[in-house]
Task: structure prediction
Amino acid sequence: MLVAAQPHNDMAIREIQMLFVVAFIITLVVGDFASTFFYHVPQHLWFTLHLRTHHDRRRSYFDHAVLSKDPGVLMDGFLGALPYLVVAALAAHLSLPGALAGLAFGQLHVWWRHTTDLGWRTPEGVRRVLRPLGIVLPEDHDGHHRNPDIEFGDIFRFYDAPARALLAKLGPTSRRVRNASRRSHKEAPARA
Ligand SMILES: [Zn+2]
Ligand SMILES: [Zn+2]
Result:
C-alpha cells in the first residue's frame, strides 16, 4: 500500500512545486506588466504624483523609494504595488506560497534596485546571471532616475521598449504637451 502510494505522492509534490514556480513567475511578470502599463506609464503621461515623489531630484532616491514615510511617497508606492497585489491574488489560486514569494521578491527588488544611490555596484557575476533573464539591475533603474524618459519596467527590462513606444504614441496627449501648448496659446496674443 505504502509502495503504491509513493509515485502518486511524488507526482503531487512535483505538481505543487510546478504551481509554486508558475504563480511566482506570473506575479512578477504579469504584475510588472500591469504596473508599468496601468500605473507607471500613465503617471509619466498624465499625472504628477509619481513625478513629484519618485522623481524628486532634491532628495536621495534611496531615501524616498525605501525609507520615506511621506504620505505622497507612500501613496505612489502603494499605487505602483497595487497591480502586483491584484495579480498575486489571482495567482494565489494556483499557489498561495508562490504568489507570496513573488510579492516578497518584488519588494526585495524595490530595495535592491535603489542601492546605486548608496554607491553599491552590481558584482560582475550577478550581472552575468541576470542579464539574459532581462532583470532590471540597480544601474538600469538609476538610468530611469537620471532620465525619466528611459528605462521603464520595474523588474523586467523587456517592458522598456513597448513602454517607450506607448509613451511616444500617447505623447501628444501628455500633460507636458498640453501645458506647453496652453502656455504658447497664452503667449500668442501678447506677441501679436
Ligand atoms: Zn526608482
Ligand atoms: Zn518613473
Summary: Residues 40, 44, 50, 54-55, 144, 148 surround zinc ion (ligand 2) (CB under 6 Å). The two ends are 95 Å apart (CA to CA). The chain has a mean pLDDT of 92.
